[in-house]
Amino acid sequence: MRPRLALVPGEPAGIGPELVVRAAQRTWDAELVIFGDAASLQQAASRLDLPLRLHARGETPRDPCSLEIRDLPHPVAATPGTPEPANAASVIASLTQAGQACLDGELDGLVTGPVHKAVINAGGIPYTGTTGLLAAQAGCQVVMMLANPVVRVALQTVHIPLREVADRITADALADALHILARALRVQFGIREPVIAVLGLNPHAGEDGLLGREELDILIPVLERLRGQGMQLVGPLPADTAFLPDKLRGFDAVLAMYHDQGLPVLKHADFAHAVNISLGLPYPRVAVDHGTALELAGSGRADPSSLFAAIATCARLAMRNVIA
Question: What is the pTM of this model?
Answer without folding.
Answer: 0.91
